[in-house]
Design brief:
By secondary structure, this protein is an alpha+beta fold. It contains four helices and twelve strands. A seven-stranded antiparallel beta sheet has the order 3-2-6-9-10-5-4. It starts with 6 loop residues before the first helix and ends in a 9-residue tail after the last strand.
């Protein structure tokens, strides 16, 4: 039997999202923890990140030409939490987390060396939606540690950090 639930409980029932550390150009470059992240197109590959207009990162993205989506593993959980709870307006997150910034090939934002996958994205559009606006970036370069498996990528939703579940079957 099903019952109607409120919006807050409905958010908790939604499956987890992938989680990313997104780097944005600035002085110093900023790192944000993004839980609102999604593939918006496969051809060309475009990734969108949802950012609240009240955030410092939003100000940086409004004038940026690109960003980098860095996929963290469970070993980076402390850094992920730090980057999601501190403002880059007040702290240099690369210094505080001791993450290593590596120059990107195309965009101005750096890669995070400790993340096994990095997507360099050029911003193509911004979509205003509710309390978050989506910055859509066309993926220009992808860097991947060949030992990386998606089963090690962090996911997040409703206050819970998770790893992806078990594959049941292919389509």
């Amino acid at each position: 039997m099903k019952k109607v639930i409120d919006e807050k409980e409905g958010r908790k029932a939604f499956p987890p999202y992938p989680l990313a550390l997104v780097t944005i150009p600035g002085s110093p470059p900023n790192i944000i923890t993004a839980a609102l992240i999604h593939v918006f197109s496969f051809e060309p590959l475009q990734i969108g990140i949802g950012i609240a207009p009240t955030r410092y990162s939003y100000e940086l993205l409004k004038v940026a030409s690109g960003f980098v989506v860095n996929i963290p593993t469970k070993e980076l959980l402390d850094q992920v939490i730090f980057c999601g709870t501190k403002s880059g307006r007040d702290v240099n997150k690369f210094e505080k987390t001791r993450l290593t910034d590596v120059p990107a090939q195309i965009v101005e934002a750096p890669l995070i060396d400790e993340c096994p996958v990095n997507y360099e994205c050029e911003i193509t559009q911004m979509i205003e939606t509710g309390d978050h606006h989506w910055f859509i970036g066309e993926v220009k370069v992808i860097h991947k540690d060949m030992n990386f498996s998606r089963e090690n990528a962090l996911c997040y939703w409703a206050g819970e950090f998770r790893l992806p579940g078990t594959l049941l079957r292919h389509r």
